[in-house]
Backbone:
């Protein structure tokens, strides 16, 4: 198996990842935080917007990274099996991502 070189992401990488996300998940909703604006003492012209990643099937922004990596890796034929040593969210994220990219992928015990 070849190794990927370590490099800084480009805008093209961001656009490629965005295409993978669009195929499998909805856009992240932005929620205005009036309370945080008030707490920070912002003038009326300033706004605070929060991205709500709790809407994802696994309730975490980590899904975006997993989908991006799995999308790139599967394009290279690298995803034959994936292992996660974490016991909380990562296995769930990896399983959901693999199933989204390839519904025929076998179920994974987490």
Residues:
């Amino acid at each position: 198996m070849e190794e990927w070189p370590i490099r800084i992401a480009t805008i093209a990488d961001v656009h490629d990842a965005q295409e993978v996300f669009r195929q499998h998940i909805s856009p992240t909703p932005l929620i205005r935080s009036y309370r945080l604006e008030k707490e920070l003492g912002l003038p009326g012209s300033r706004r605070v917007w929060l991205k709500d990643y709790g809407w994802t099937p696994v309730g975490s922004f980590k899904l975006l990274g997993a989908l991006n990596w799995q999308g790139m890796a599967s394009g290279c034929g690298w995803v034959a099996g994936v292992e996660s040593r974490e016991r909380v969210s990562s296995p769930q994220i990896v399983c959901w991502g693999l199933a989204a990219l390839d519904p025929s992928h076998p179920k994974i015990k987490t």
Remarks:
- Strands lie at 30-32, 49-51.
- The mean pLDDT is 75.
- Residues 62 and 73 are 16 Å apart (CA to CA).
- The longest helix spans residues 11-24.
